[in-house]
Design brief:
The structure holds three protein chains of three kinds.
Chain A lengths: L1 H5 L1 H5 L12 E6 L2 E7 L8 H5 L7 H5 L9 H14 L5 H30 L2 H22 L8 E2 L2 E2 L8 H24 L1 H7 L7 H6 L4 H5 L7 H4 L20 H24 L16 E9 L2 E9 L7 E5 L2 H4 L3 H5 L7 H7 L10 E5 L5 E2 L1 H19 L1
Helix pairs in contact in A: 6-7, 6-13, 6-16, 7-8, 8-13, 9-17
Chain B lengths: L2 H8 L8 E6 L2 E7 L3 H11 L3 E9 L4 E9 L4 E9 L6 E3 L9 H11 L2 E3 L26
Chain C lengths: L1 H7 L4 E6 L5 H8 L13 E2 L8 E5 L7 H10 L5 E5 L1 H5 L13 H8 L4 E5 L6 H14 L1
Parallel strand pairs in C: 1-2, 1-3, 3-4, 4-5
Classes of the chains: A alpha+beta, B alpha/beta, C alpha/beta.
Chain lengths: 396, 145, 143
């Protein structure tokens, strides 16, 4: 037993097919209530900041795009904006609109991915299949526009690497109409379902005070009433030219986080349509000869929240220092505030509600402090799904 | 507060700063010695107040630097406190986690990759390097290949 | 051994391991289950434990922390098994070759435990779901 507590990943039977990451959240429980949680994130540490110091400025977007597969547009954008700050560059208008287009398309498929996973965690597998089916047209569009379903490689210092052909604009609008219909249907289904209300309301609540103390960002913050969104607060690309709103909810529980993400998906669809219709003509990049000495901070609103990059230059070809902060870095620790005191059947959905950018988080295991029994991910998932079943039976 | 009011508020601590740099209207860098970092961070987080974003540790050859990045969301201004740690042999600085739990992880990370000690940190354990990573090897130091 | 391997060709049960990946390959693997690709019609099933698996789908560069865990998963997997190395990172560390915390690639780590391991490579960044299915089916048909 001692051996299994020391190295629970082995005794526990590690990874579930639907939770892609090598995650390690170690929960301590007392019976059925979570009393403590620890997180170990070294499984995914690849030393990216050091690699950056050996790459040239225009090679780095390819590196940082692969920090996290599903924020793969936001990281390069935040990075190039930091460098553009140092060099005092403003990309041409067309580039700013293309940047909005790609980033919002990413937000759509990222949020739909989340909806699917959340559905799976609580036993709504139809939602999972459905949401992931409706992601596909977005990925296909991105492949047509940029050449890849993820890791688009579309930004560089000074603008975009490639233009988008005007001929594709009608197709984008047509696909989005379809996706909008489906998202609206899904949103309505979630908002109207009494079982979901009962299952998710009041669960995994993060208070506004804790949201500020833990410095959380993105939907995790906005669902706790903290109205921050980099697109509005420190506008970049073409966001200040477009008509959209920041979505917040006050309750801070899992239900609120689901509502925020669904409504944001609809806003993102609105944004892409506007970006397509208003796309200005002109070049999509300006030439950049060199980066002078200096330091710059760039940020972008990734699907999970603010992505922040700091770059220091000494006038050479490579950065002296490149700091990357993904949104999950601040969101995941807030799990301490939202999960302690919760029932063990709610642990998987509370964690998922933070939408950890899985490439910096680890798997979940719970150890009962009295009996030393270890519950692995499969058991915790089962508890979660059983709870929903139970509720359904009682309500219907 | 608008940007002008924010600038005025930041003047309250100017006696504790070495210098103020403003490369852009909404990007402010406050330079200070590491001895004043705790007080200045407390002022920025609690009195202004600003939102903590992250901290960056840098091996700057003749010293170490810890940059604390804050955001003022009402105007989109990023305020960075740049603290200089002059002692290269045993770099150390006061931890700000006691009043800012959001800084716990990043201080552990800077300890892992740069070997900076964060005094009075509530939970200084390895964060991002493997269990069997050798002690005393700090990958982000310039001397590390 | 060969009758056991040919038994693998029908309905391989696969177990997915992430050894330090950005998640793109992992999401594409999970995509295999979804209606558009629907890998279950080939009898390929994603299982929850390596002990039930005929094949491993491994993603990621193999970080120093993940290496011993990967080796442990390989040991626990029922033999014979095929190790499918999915994505540029897993095949040859991709863009993270010089990372100080990267000890892979996957084949090197697996071969430390079993020099005769059967390994198949599906490159891409990430490989599309069609490429993964094609790679898995192709590799199994050559056994």
């Amino acid at each position: 037993m001692k051996e299994s507590v020391k190295k629970p990943v082995i005794a526990v039977g590690p990874f579930h097919p639907l939770q892609e990451e090598m995650e390690f959240f170690q929960l301590t429980v007392d019976g059925e209530i979570v009393t403590d949680i620890d997180v170990r994130i070294s499984y995914n540490h690849r030393g990216i900041e050091k690699i950056s110091e050996s790459l040239q400025y225009d090679q780095i977007p390819f590196l940082v795009s692969r920090i996290c597969g599903i924020c793969s547009a936001s990281h390069p954008l935040a990075y190039v904006q930091a460098v553009e700050d140092i060099a005092g560059i403003t990309p041409p208008d067309r580039a700013l609109y293309v940047r909005v287009l790609i980033n919002e398309l990413e937000r759509i498929h990222s949020h739909l991915l989340w909806v699917g996973l959340a559905g799976h965690f609580i036993g709504y597998d139809t939602v999972f299949m459905w949401a992931w089916k409706y992601r596909e047209p977005v990925l296909d569009l991105l492949e047509e526009i940029t050449g890849n379903r993820n890791n688009y490689g579309n930004v560089k210092v000074g603008g975009c690497r490639e233009d988008i052909p005007n001929e594709i604009k009608p197709k984008i609008l047509k696909e989005l109409d379809e996706i909008e219909k489906k998202t609206e249907m899904l949103t309505k289904a979630v908002l109207d379902d009494p079982v979901l209300h009962a299952r998710l309301k009041g669960v995994g609540r993060l208070t506004k005070e804790d949201a500020i103390k833990y410095a959380v960002v993105g939907p995790t913050a906005r669902a706790s009433g903290v109205a921050i969104d980099v697109r509005a607060d420190d506008p970049y690309a073409a966001y200040s030219d477009l008509d959209w709103k920041v979505i917040t909810q006050p309750e801070g529980d899992v239900f609120a986080k689901a509502v925020v993400r669904l409504l944001e998906t609809l806003e993102a669809i609105k944004l892409v349509k506007q970006a397509v219709k208003k796309l200005p003509d002109g070049p999509v990049a300006i030439e950049v000869k060199e980066i002078p000495p200096g330091e710059g901070c760039g940020r972008a609103e990734a699907p999970r929240g603010e992505t922040f990059h700091y770059v220091r230059s000494d006038g050479g070809n490579r950065p002296v220092r490149h700091k990357v902060r993904a949104p999950s870095y601040v969101n995941v620790p807030s799990f301490k505030a939202s999960c302690i005191g919760e029932h063990i059947a709610d642990v998987t959905i509370t964690l998922a509600a933070v939408d950890p950018c899985y490439s910096c988080t680890e798997r979940i295991a719970a150890v009962d402090s009295r009996s030393n029994v270890v519950m692995d991910y499969n058991k915790l998932l089962k508890l979660s799904r059983n709870k929903t079943e139970q509720m359904k039976k009682e309500m219907l | 507060m608008n940007q002008e009011e924010l600038n005025k508020k930041l003047e309250q601590i100017s006696d504790k700063l070495i210098a103020v740099e403003r490369p852009l209207e909404d990007r402010v860098f406050l330079l200070c010695e590491s001895e004043n970092s705790y007080q200045l961070n407390k002022f920025l987080f609690e009195d202004v107040p600003l939102r903590f974003v992250v901290a960056t540790g840098i091996d700057a050859e003749d010293c170490f630097e810890v940059l604390y990045h804050y955001s003022y969301d009402q105007t989109g201004c990023i305020v960075t406190l740049r603290a200089f740690i002059r002692d290269r042999e045993k770099p150390a600085i006061e931890s700000i986690s006691p009043f800012l739990p959001g800084a716990e992880w990043i201080e552990r990370e800077m300890h892992d990759i740069l070997g900076i000690e964060f005094k009075n940190h509530p939970d200084m354990r390895r964060l991002i390097l493997a269990d069997d990573w050798p002690e005393g090897v700090y990958p982000l130091r310039k001397s590390s290949s | 051994m060969s009758w056991k391997i040919s038994a693998l060709k029908k309905s391989p049960w696969v177990f997915h391991v992430n050894t330090g990946a950005c998640n793109n390959c992992d999401i594409e693997i999970v995509n295999l289950l979804t209606p558009k690709f629907d890998v279950e019609r080939f009898g390929i099933k994603l299982v929850g434990s390596p002990r039930h698996a005929d094949a491993l789908l491994v993603t990621g560069v193999v970080t120093q922390q993940a290496a011993p865990r990967l080796q442990e998963v390989y040991r626990q997997t029922a033999k014979p098994c095929v190790v499918f190395v999915i994505g540029a990172c897993a095949c040859d560390k991709g863009i993270f070759t010089t990372g100080y915390h990267v000890v892979g690639p996957v084949d090197k780590i697996i071969k430390e435990v079993d020099p005769n391991a059967i390994i198949a490579y599906v490159p891409g960044c990430p490989p599309k779901p069609e490429a993964i299915i094609s790679g898995v089916v192709k590799a199994l048909s050559t056994l």
